[in-house]
Design goal:
Two copies of one chain form a homodimer. Chain A is of the alpha/beta class. The longest helix of chain A is centred in the N-terminal third of the chain and has 17 residues, at 39-55. Chain A is globular and about 70 Å long. Chain A binds chain B through residues 7-14, 19-20, 22-24, 194, 197-199, 201-204, 228-230, 321-323, 334, 337-338, 340, 362-363, 379, 381, 396, and chain B through 7-14, 19-20, 22-24, 194, 197-199, 201-204, 228-230, 321-323, 334, 337-338, 340, 362-363, 379, 381, 396.
């Protein structure tokens, strides 16, 4: 855990939503699920949720996991937990029960706030450990105070946040077979939002559209930017290309955050119709974008701005400046103002155009992973090794060659082969397993597997797939599994995932 | 001195101008005195100035005073000193020799960088102490490197700044008869620029116009915002209302920073012509604005945004949001996002609409005055007592009733009566002295004095004025001195400046 008082780095700011409501109470802060709330509305409702959480026993320092689809509830949880000094652990709703249980256990969560529609998943994921389950509907209805409701109004709600304090633990796919919980501080989010504004600008009439999951850092970042900038966040409950396009037309959206697969579907849905000029930035993250998509957008004058981001950098690390969008097509731009970025080649700085590992440092970089003794205060001058590969051109623009070693990005979700392989290897029939990504026109990539069976046993592809489906989020389950007598390995025995036999598949059914 | 390593609050960022030049080298950063420099130009020139300063002996921690009129030189000094870790002490060029000498002495300056036109003032102010004089022309000509110039190119120039490190010492008029040197850190400026952007927005095509002196915090703040935002700063060498109006028309200026006297003269010069719509913000500081001026601007749809600022808050502390400009005419708005503001009535919080002392705290507040043992790290939660009086209305909007007790603001310059009285009392003929402000249509106010002479001596008004003129900046010299047999005092003997006899003067000759 970070103890800011020990590092001396404490820096108190007014709690973000409450301050925003003090400054511009009447501006619309959130448009979501039929609601249209001013910042004053949001502030009042966040107080109500915070008091109900306190009544349920939540205290400062508690880890409160959430299992919520996009909607107004995760927005209110984000802000109400700040008012209690509790730590948000936003769980991916697509996780399998075993994955949920593992994350709940390792973060030491005391509470799980879930929505009724996900009741089964919540139960499945928590049945085996002590955890207080809280149905989100008991927290969010009725605003600040319901008639007749007895609430501990004396609960002291925090009106300040310490930038060095832990705000959330966000799980990222792990390179070693298990996801890791990246710790993010209030300062990480603050610096990210400010750095983004210094690059993309900030207009009082900006409206930010997100249909990215709010349990990912990219979705959360939209919520923080909305509150810090005083701009409306338009949050969609799920990705629907027609709804996205309609919101751009009808809601005066100026900035959308998408991944490549979403953008492609938006273009497909829209046909030849242009976008209104108010749409000033399509922030495209989630991995290297296909060049044909970028070229199609450039031809249609869609202001795509590619970004390279990580959970560990509280979203954007590098983003192309709007003025370079066409000149540097395919680049993720330059680091945000407050971040430094360098390319490392086996310990020495890369020369221009030489590919190496991307390193970043600065105040929006996570202090570490929860439970990792290496966790450090956010003022550290250490470099974060991203594991991603890229190069800088002669002008210092970043090109991302490949997300980490073997990382598969499917529709914006990260899939680490090692994590899927670990599940396959847990099956008694499997001796060796290898997983790699297969290009996919819709999702960017999908996982495929190859296995070597133990001698004398028999198992079908369907049985293995069913085994995976019980233990992995659906998007991580291979679309096909090939049976082999051996897997390609280096002389030292290291699996060569890129040489795995291509099962010759096309896209799975959507 | 602040020792950030002792507070643990060190937070390294890329050095501001150098980072900006890395990110957007080709954008125009400065338009001034016939020059039009990109950020790359500025970066290269700042390196040259830094190397020449190093060759002259300047080292990290040195206090380097400047005596410079507005121009490109103070811009380059600001950034080049950051590259040496030296501390800027920007002196007011209107100071009298005795005032200059006192400030140079108390800040412990080792160097004075002056321009040739001010050679006499520099010599007068420094003749009595050891100080290395550096003519600015020897630093600034020729960009990064002049042909044939031998420069210590090995001088390691800093490419990072610590937000907790001391950037400058800026003298403010003192309430006790002597100016005080407010210490400002890089973090103070960073937070001020960010807080301003979160209020006023930030557009990549913004152009910021300043004819405010760059040795005042309001002028410096424009330079920092330009570099952090990546916007052009248009700097005028002196205030000329016709030149200001022409720059707004011809240079695409979007934001101007002015004080009331300047704005009035701009309106007078312009007559009935409207301003172009690109002018989105007239940031009006330097003391409470006359209501007729605000009403005249509102009637002409000039987007005046009133601000309340202090040297000790690195410029803006509270600023009206653009959307409230008409609805809250006369208010200085709400505090910047990162600052807290409260009104103190003898130790208790004021009720709405009750006048009291304005208190502020937050990361843009100066850690203290140079040489003051009370200096504290910038993460302190202490409140700064501004000495200014004001109230908050029912909606939390600040109205500044009066700048500090008895403060006279004349054309944006602060004059403390105690400082002028101390000079009058130094004359052998003067037994008592009182100074107060007289309303003035052009300057807002001008100082007037009343004195009681010692028995049996004789002196003329002209002799006393000449005495003052040798010891005070011209704007501080009273426009008239009345001779009295006694001054109004309270029962306890405290001077009642507001009851000083009005000499019945009108405005002095311009």
């Amino acid at each position: 855990m970070i103890d800011p008082s020990a590092t001396g780095a404490a820096l108190l700011l007014p709690e973000f939503l409450h301050r925003r409501a003090e400054l511009t109470p009447e501006r619309v802060g959130l448009v979501c699920a039929g609601s249209r709330w001013t910042f004053a509305d949001m502030d009042q409702r966040a107080d109500g949720v915070a008091r109900r959480l306190a009544a349920a026993g939540v205290q400062a320092g508690d880890r409160v996991a959430t299992l919520l689809r996009n909607g107004t509830a995760p927005v209110l949880l984000l802000h109400s937990l700040a008012r209690l000094g509790a730590v948000l652990v936003p769980l991916n709703i697509r996780l399998a029960p075993a994955e949920l249980a593992w994350q709940l256990e390792t973060c030491g969560a005391s509470y799980l706030v879930y929505e009724s529609a996900l009741h089964g998943a919540a139960q499945d994921g928590t049945g085996w450990r002590a955890l207080t389950l809280v149905a989100v509907e008991t927290l969010t209805a009725g605003g600040d105070h319901r008639p007749g409701e007895a609430l501990p109004h004396a609960t002291p709600l925090r009106r300040h946040v310490d930038l060095a304090a832990l705000q959330s633990i966000v799980y990222t796919s792990g390179t070693t077979g298990q996801p890791k919980g990246a710790m993010l501080t209030y300062g990480n989010h603050w610096w990210n939002a400010v750095g983004s504004a210094l690059n993309l600008g900030l207009q009082p009439d900006d409206r930010l559209l997100a249909s990215l999951p709010l349990f990912h850092v990219g979705g959360m970042a939209v919520l923080w930017r909305s509150v810090l900038y005083g701009c409306t966040a338009v949050v969609h409950e799920r990705f629907d290309p027609a709804a996205m396009n309609a919101a751009i037309d009808d809601e005066g959206v100026t900035i959308v955050s998408v991944v490549a697969a979403m953008l492609q579907r938006m273009l497909d849905q829209r046909g030849d119709r242009t976008y209104p000029p108010a749409l000033r930035c399509v922030l495209l993250g989630g991995g290297p974008a296909p060049r044909p998509l970028l070229e199609a957008c450039a031809a249609r004058r869609i202001p795509v701005v590619q970004t390279y981001g990580l959970t560990e950098t509280a979203s954007q690390a590098a983003t192309l400046a709007p003025e370079d969008a066409l000149r540097k097509l395919g680049s993720a731009g330059k680091p945000l103002f407050h971040l430094e970025l360098r390319i490392d080649c086996a310990g020495r700085p890369a020369t221009p155009n030489e590919t190496g590992e991307i390193l970043v440092r600065g105040p929006s970089v996570s202090p570490g992973y929860y439970g990792d003794d290496q966790a450090r205060p956010p003022t550290s001058a250490d470099w974060l090794r991203t594991g991603d590969l890229g190069w800088l051109d002669d002008d210092g623009y970043l090109y991302v060659a490949d997300r980490r070693d073997d990382l598969i990005i499917s529709g914006g979700e990260n899939i680490y082969p090692a994590e899927v392989e670990a599940v396959l290897l847990a099956h008694p029939a499997v001796a060796e397993a290898g997983v790699t990504g297969l290009d996919d026109p819709q999702w960017g990539a999908v996982p495929v597997a190859a296995v070597v069976l133990r001698p004398g046993v028999a198992v079908t592809e369907g049985e293995l797939l069913a085994f995976c489906a019980g233990r992995l989020a659906r998007y991580k389950v291979p679309v096909a599994i090939a049976f082999r007598t051996e897997l390609p390995r280096t002389a030292s025995g290291k699996l060569q995932r890129r040489r795995l036999p291509n099962p010759g598949l096309t896209s799975p059914p959507a």
